[in-house]
Structures are given as C-alpha cells and as structure tokens.
Sequence to fold (409 residues):
Amino acid sequence: MKALGLLSWLLVSCSLLANDHNQPLDAYISGYQQKEFSYDYEKNEAESSKLRDSWIAPIQLNYSYSRSEPYTNEQVNQNAAIKIDQPIFQSGGIYYGIKFANASKIYNNYSIDVAKRKMIKDTIAILMQIKKAQLQEQRQQLQIQNSEINLAQKKEEFLNGRLDSGFLDNAIIQRNIVKEALFDIQNNKAKLISQFEALSDLEYQKAPIPHLELIDLDKFLQSNIVLKKTKAEVTKNSYYKNVTVAKYLPKINFTAGYSWQKSEGQQFYAGGNLIETSNELHYYDYGVRFSMSLDINTFRDIESVKVDYLKSQVVQEDKKRELTKLFEQVMHNIENFNKKINLSKENIDLYTKLLEDTTQLYETGYKTQYDVQTLQNSLKIQNIDTKIYEIDKQLELLTLYEMYVNNGE
Fold:
C-alpha cells in the first residue's frame, strides 16, 4: 500500500480523453476500425429498439385468391382478413421488458466501449514502444561506440605488450554482443512499426504520444468503464429476472379482426339442376383473451435467472477487488521506475563531474581522447535511460487509461 501514498494525480489531458465514445483518440485507430465500431453502435441501437418494442404485436394481413373449374364454369374465390392479438396486461412483463431492453442497450454499449478502448490502448502502447525502441537504438549505438573505444584501447595495449590476448578477445566478444543487441532492437522496432501501421492510419514518425498522468484509487474505481459495465449487467439481469417471473403470471390480450370473402361462379346441383350463385361476406370480431402458463419448469426457470442476477453482483464486487489490486501493482511499478529515474539522475550528476575532471586531465595530457569520449557517451546513455523509464511509466498508466472514463455516466 506504500505506492498509494504517492501524490494523487489526475489521468486527464485535453489531448487524451474524450467526451462520447472517446472521439479525440479515434485518430489512433484506422478508419476501417472506426467504421466497424460505428456499425456496432448502430446495430446495438437497432437491436435495443427491436427488443424494447417486442411487446407490440404485429398486425396479421392475409389474402388468398383461387380459380377452379369443377363443372362447366370457372369459379373464383377471394378471402382477406386483418387480425391483431395485442397484449395489454402481462403482470408487469411489459414494463420490465422495456426496462430490460434499455438496460441491455447500456450494457452492450459499454461492451463496445471496452473493446474500442482496448484497441486504442493497444495502438498507443505500440506507438510508445516504437518511441522506446528508437531511444534504445540510440542508447545501443552509444554502447557500440564505447565498445569500439574499449577494443581500440585493448588493441593498442596488446600490440605494446602490456595486455594478454584474452583481454583483447573479450573486448571483441563484448563489441559483437552489443552490435547483435542493436540488430535485435532494430528488428523488434520493425515489427512494432508493422503492427502499428496495421492498426492505425497515422505515420508513426509524426504521431504524438498522449501524456498520461496518475490518478488516485477512488477516481479510478468511480470512473472505471469495466465496473460500469458490470454494474450495467447487474441492472440488466435484475430486469430480466422480473421479465421471467412475469412470463408465468396472468396475461390479457385484446383481440380484433375483420374478414372479407367473395365467391363468383359457384355451382351446385339441386333437384337435378345445376345452379350457379355468387356471394360476398364481410364481418368483424373483437374481444379479450386471458392466458396463464402452467409449466413444470416455472420455478426452475425463475431460479436460474435469479442465480444469474446474484452471480453478477458477486462478479461486480470481485472485479472491483481485482481492479484495486491492479491499481496497486501499477503504482508499485511506477514507484520502481521513479527509483530508476532517480538513480539515472544520480549517475548523470556523477558522469557530469567525471567528464569535467577528465576533460581537464585530458587538456593537461593525463587522460586520452578515448576517456573523454567514453564518459560523454556514458552521460548520454544515462539521459536516454531517463527518457526510456518515463515511457515505461506511460505504458503502465495505459493499463489504467484503458478502463478510465471522464464523460460521466
């Protein structure tokens, strides 16, 4: 919990956070992905509206037309009907059904938000890793320069007979190691660039890195999109439990209809004579229908959705605990990077003083240009290390950003 003693900073930046569905950060992901998420939101809107209005019964329209010739003349029959069977009372089922549809819409929107934030977070993380790889590349090149200087010194000492060949061989090996490490860094950077270009339309060289700052635990949990999603799931399951109960309670429907029939050329025999007639009939009907489902699985069905509701409450509390531990771990990691930054700053002060003294000794002939250049490179390495650790801190904070919202409920 020591990490929680850090100053409470706020994870907000005008260039970072968004109002609705994180619009300012959409630029980090490709236009295709933005369109995909836009369609996800549109589909959720349509599905939610369909679910919300599902209690409204459709109007049934029927029409038939037939021709036949059983006797001497052709017969024509036409039938048309309009019928409705509309629920007007479902023991609260209609009310809770609408509430469930609205809660489902909110839950599904949060689900889309979570997926979208993860993609944006992954894209920004790759961009940060590219910037970090660029710094590591610069750092490694400085280390190569120092290894080349060390090799040159060892070579001179070996040729002058002041050094055993084993030391020269070791200097060659060390130079090869740092060069191979540079190749690995460059290869990793190329992979990161490829991944970024697959996710984003931005040019990685020009794309700015959002600056993230720390946030306290209370704000992190209060504005956490994952917790909002689990809370929405609890609400959704609560309404669905009521919908399920109402399914087995009394229902009343209003029924109505209008029918029309027309027959032409109808023929039949009467008293040995063939008689032909035509007729037209139309009528309406209306009334109410009462129904109630008596199912052996009624209580099992209700118990099942009740368990889902209770489980979602437990999941919400468990997720809150999980996120609290995640926050503490991120704070611990950031504190560790701060220690490394402080150590690099101490080393910067040390190398700065050594460089000043060595430069003076070089000017008086007591030190070589190799010594001065080695210290200059080491000083630059420490400055680069500080920048690398700052990016590492930003990568840690991205873990929190992925779940942090600042646009209210």
About this structure: The chain has one domain: 2-55+90-250+292-401. The two ends are 29 Å apart (CA to CA). The chain has seven helices and four strands.
